[in-house]
Specification:
With 383 residues, the chain is α+β, with helices and mostly antiparallel strands. The radius of gyration is 21 Å and the shape is globular. The longest helix has 18 residues. It is built from eleven helices and 17 strands. It has three domains: 146 residues, Rossmann fold; 146 residues, ATP-grasp fold, B domain (D-amino Acid Aminotransferase, Chain A, domain 1, 2-Layer Sandwich); 68 residues, 2-Layer Sandwich (Dna Ligase, domain 1), CATH 3.30.1490. Bound molecules: adenosine-5'-diphosphate (ADP) and magnesium ion. Adenosine-5'-diphosphate (ADP) binds next to strand 9 and strand 17.
Length: 383
């Protein structure tokens, strides 16, 4: 694949270099991962092309100013970094422009006059999970009229919701596994009985998941219906809406999609090889133990072409923008089903998404550049 260079695109602030607000941390359980991702981006972003304003969101949701110092934002002694630990002030807040009439970002502290932090041309939201990847932050940026990297409100919200992702994909003829959804119906005797009947019809094993979560949090593999209630209760601790899926037998293959000037393109695919006696790619297998991600996946040319076609089709079906990682299962009969779509996939240099692009000829710094250029090309609002 040939990847042509992008040229700098001066932003609306009129400055020679577009000013990028890198937003990270946040209220989700993936806070620490997000901070260390931001450290990697701060180290790699092309400073000759972009000015940078790092903004950390604390666990409580306060937008704090942090120094442009990646060394303080990295994993040290096995401990994940934390915005509260690196924020300069414990009280002040960064506020986005209140309307599209201005691009001015403001710093305010109790008892002091607000201070202008200058204009921002584009936001790079490096946030995973709820309040970041789910359309809420995207809505705030739409109201402010500041362009941002990645999918808009609808695609972000749909991509976060495992039920609606499947419904949209199904309606576009893209394969998904069988599933059913349990909501507040689980709270009444009749509701539970009806849900158990629907679930039993799926067959075993089952995967019980919070409908809107990530990092395998709250997911249980159920091999015996006697364990179903415990699994549903566990998933409901994270989300009142639970999806129960039929467990599929097959290989786990992922594909990275990125928006180019002429539309989305798919990378070489990767295969997740869950080792070490893990039943599936759960939290420990992902982050603590070493599961291998093989890039490129060992697939023949036809399979590779097919998964890349389907990854782009899934990206377009959901109306994604910028980037997404589409995760598939290749079933034993050779057919494909989509497991899920991540609109802000893991983005450290050793995460699968950047590595798939690197293997496709696009190094990390250029990937960041492409994402920012795609965001600067489009405006906010209906598009
Ligand atoms: N229907 C399924 N059949 C087989 N394995 C599954 C199924 N659903 C999930 N898994 C396993 O569980 C892991 C986590 O599930 P996933 O839906 O990707 O949740 P998350 O959004 O937390 O990553 C997958 O990577 C896969 O290993
Ligand atoms: Mg997953």
């Amino acid at each position: 694949m040939s990847i042509e260079q992008t040229s700098p695109n001066p932003g609306a602030s009129g400055a020679a270099k577009p000013r990028v607000a890198i937003v990270f941390g946040g209220r989700s359980s993936e806070h620490g991962i997000s901070v260390s991702t931001a450290a990697s981006v701060l180290r790699s972003i092309d400073r000759s092309k972009y000015e940078v304003l790092p903004i950390g969101i604390t666990h409580e949701g306060r937008w704090a100013l942090v120094d442009d110092d990646p060394a303080r934002m990295s994993i040290t002694d096995g401990k994940l970094p934390d915005v509260d630990g690196i924020a300069g002030s414990t009280e002040g807040q960064v506020a986005l422009p209140g309307s599209p009439a201005s691009r001015e970002v403001v710093w305010s502290e109790p008892g002091a006059a607000p201070k202008a932090l200058g204009e921002v041309d584009v936001v790079l939201p490096l946030l995973h999970g709820p309040w970041g990847e789910d359309g809420t932050l995207q809505g705030l940026l739409e109201l402010s009229g500041v362009p941002y990297v990645g999918s808009g409100v609808l695609a972000s919200a749909v991509g976060m919701d495992k039920e609606f992702t499947k419904r949209i994909l199904e309606s576009h003829g893209i394969g998904v596994g069988s599933y059913t959804v349990v909501k507040r119906d689980w709270e009444t005797e009749e509701g539970r009985a009806a849900a158990r009947t629907r679930i039993a019809a799926l067959g075993l094993p089952l995967f019980v998941k919070p409908c809107r979560a990530g990092s395998s949090i709250g997911i249980t593999k159920v091999k015996d219906l006697a364990d179903l209630d415990t699994a549903i209760d566990e998933a409901r601790r994270h989300d009142p809406k639970v999806i129960v899926e039929r467990g599929v037998e097959g290989r786990e293959i992922e594909c990275a999609v990125l928006e180019f000037e002429d539309g989305p393109r798919a990378s070489v695919p990767a295969e997740v090889l869950v080792g070490g006696g893990y039943e599936f790619y759960d939290f420990e297998a992902k982050y603590i133990d070493s599961s291998e991600v093989r890039i490129p996946a060992e697939l023949d040319a036809d399979d590779t072409a097919e998964i890349r076609r389907q990854a782009v089709a899934a990206f377009e079906a959901l109306g994604c923008e910028g980037l997404a990682r589409v995760d598939f299962f290749r079933l034993t009969d050779g057919s494909w089903v989509v497991n899920e779509i991540n609109t802000m996939p893991g983005f450290t240099p050793i995460s699968a998404y950047p590595k798939m692009w690197e293997a496709s000829g696009l190094p990390y710094a250029e990937l960041i550049d492409r994402l920012l250029q795609a965001a600067l090309r489009r405006s906010t609002g209906l598009r």
